[in-house]
Every structure is written in C-alpha cells, then in structure tokens.
Design a protein that fits this description.
7-stranded parallel β-sheet, globular, binds 2'deoxy-thymidine-5'-diphospho-alpha-D-glucose, two-stranded parallel ribbon, Rossmann fold, 13 strands, binds nicotinamide-adenine-dinucleotide, alpha/beta, 11 helices
Length: about 325
Amino acid sequence: MFRLLVTGGAGFIGSNFVHYLLRHTDYHVVVLDKLTYAGNPASLLGIPENRLTFIQGDIVDAELVRPLVSSVDAIVHYAAESHNDNSLSNPNPFLHTNVIGTYVLLEAARIHGTRIHHISTDEVYGDLELDDPARFTEATPYNPSSPYSSTKASSDMLVRAWARSFNVAATISNCSNNYGPYQHVEKFIPRQITNILVGGRPKLYGRGQNVRDWIYADDHSSAVHAILTAGRIGETYLIGADGERDNKSVVELILKLMGRDADAYDHVPDRAGHDLRYAIDSTKLRHELGWRPKYDDFERGLSKTIDWYRTNESWWSASKFATEARYGRSGH
Ligand code: NAD
Ligand code: DAU
C-alpha cells in the first residue's frame, strides 16, 4: 500500500487533503502535525485506523522526521505558520517552521531519496494593481511583502535548490486563497461568519477594495493529488479557480446569505503592508494535467461553508474567544 506523509495534516487544507485521499485513493496516510493553535485533531475524526497514522511532532525535529521519511513513499508538505496578521506581530515561528522546517524535510528527502511535493502560496509573487490585465504565472518574479510570504518564498527557494543541487524529486504548487469547512476562525471568511453567529459584526480592513482569488479547498486538494501523481519532477504549478472578488463584496455576500443588512459591518484599521490583489493563471496545470476546479460557483461554496460553521460550533467555539482577544489587542 502506498504510504504518504502529510505534514500539517491537522490544519485547514492539510486535513481537507487527507479526507480527499480517503475518498479517492487507497493510500495509507501518515500525518505529522505539531498541533499548534491552528491544528485541530477533530478535523481528522472518523478516519479508520487502517488508513491513518497520526503523529504529534515538530517538522524541525530531524531525529523524528528522518526515520519517518524513511518509512514512506512520498511527502506532501503543508505544515506552516499560515496567517499574515500573526507574522506581523511575531515573525519568529514563521522562520522556525516555514524555513527551518522545510530544510529539515528536504534533508530527510535527500538522504532517503523520497519524492516530496511542497505546498506554497501565490503570495510569494507580491501583489498586482486592481486594473493590471496580467495574472501570476509560473514565470512571475518573486516579490513577497510580509514576514509570512517571505518565509514561504524562502521555502520555495530551498526546494528549488535541493532539486537542482541534490536531484531531490520535488514539485511545488502555489495556490490562491482557500475557503471551506475546517478553516481557523482567524481567517477572513470564517471570522466574518462566526462573528455574525456569535452576535457580532464582520470586520473589514481599510476600504475593503483588496482582491483575493478564492478557491474551494477540495479543488486545491484535487490539484495537489494530480501534481503528486502526474506532475513533472522539478516543476512548479500554479493552482487557481478564477475566483477574484474584493473583500467588501465578500462581506456583503456573507451578510446577505445570513439574512443581515448588507451594511451591517465595521471598518477597522488596515493591515500593514496589505497586498492589494492576487490573481492566478492556472493554464499550465489545466493544459498539462487536465485539472479543472469542480466548485466554480462562489456563492454556492460560501453557502455550504456558512452551513458548516452553523452546524459545527463545537469545532470552532473554543478558539473564537482567544482569536478575537488577539485581534482586539492589535486594533483589528
Ligand atoms: P493552517 O494554519 O490551518 O494549518 C497549519 C498546520 O500546520 C496546523 O495543523 C499546525 O498545527 C501545523 N504546524 C504548524 N507548525 C508546525 C510544525 N513546526 N511542525 C508540524 N506541524 C506544524 O494552514 P492552512 O491554511 O491549512 O495552510 C496549509 C498550507 O497551505 C501552508 O503551507 C500555507 O502556506 C499553504 N497555503 C494556504 C492557503 C490558504 O488560503 N489558507 C493558500 C495557499 C497556500
Ligand atoms: O493567497 C494565499 C494566502 O491566502 C495563503 O498563503 C495564506 O496562508 C492565507 O491566510 C491567505 O492570506 P490572506 O492574508 O489573503 O488571507 P486572510 O484570510 O488573512 O485575509 C483575506 C483578506 O481579507 C485580506 O485582504 C485581509 C482581509 N481581512 C482579513 C481579516 C482576517 C479583512 O478585511 N478582515 C479580517 O477580519
């Protein structure tokens, strides 16, 4: 049976990928996750023991990582500190996990000759003007803005160097903004949904003109599986579902879908260095691997997501208070 190590498999997108593999393959999945504030073992509930081994640990711990890597056929590396706002208040864990953690995994992959797919972000390319006709492609120069995106860019550079210098069998994907069930309530969409569910109001940074390119998490998972199984070694693939929306429209749509007035939200101070627009051109992935997103109706995906947060309050309620206390301290 094919054994796959998934780092960060108790996080939002990593756990979605584990569930995707359960439905679409017969792999045995080994999850390595530190269970930081962002990891939640409840996101993996219901998976039979013969399909999943869960190990709590830090990807920086080479003594733990090396034997683990020797016991699997491939690695998909999701583990990261993932939130821009946190990286502005304390960059340190971002350097630890995103840079050193990726280095430790690459060394283990080099020593054991293990295939590795590295999960990255469109934020490594910086941002676009609102009226720029161009979108990000695999050839766009790196230009990260935040401590988070600069550590993700660093990790991509390490992967490229290990592939070229040591022939590590690596691929990279850079995806746009994900949404869907199991996303931590610190992130934009679940924060607004749960604010409304607890009787509060959505919080919009600045004027809300910033544009993000939304993709339903299941579509990210199907793209990663396509790259893992059929992608060309050494290549980078951009993943996106043509889902550009400005933040103000997204807040207004959430309010409408939840039966509230479209202007029942608060403006809060803008994020420092806030990227204006991300937009992905995923032509390479679509042409080479025949991948297509299944969830191309944003309003339907958002409705499903709202329903999930409404019926799974026990999954998010424990972290809601701490998250809002943190935002309160930073004025957001
Ligand atoms: P998340 O914050 O929800 O989950 C991260 C997971 O990694 C958590 O389970 C956490 O416990 C674990 N983790 C953190 N540090 C660790 C360490 N040192 N050792 C082991 N485990 C550790 O993040 P997410 O939104 O699911 O993002 C997953 C990956 O996808 C990240 O690499 C991120 O950069 C990338 N990505 C995210 C998005 C998005 O929209 N969320 C888009 C593109 C790419
Ligand atoms: O583009 C991919 C990236 O998308 C991933 O690499 C990151 O891991 C992921 O967190 C996400 O980064 P963003 O910074 O775009 O996502 P976030 O959910 O933090 O914010 C989305 C937009 O919403 C951004 O323009 C900031 C704004 N925002 C955010 C919050 C939390 C608000 O207006 N109000 C809020 O309360």
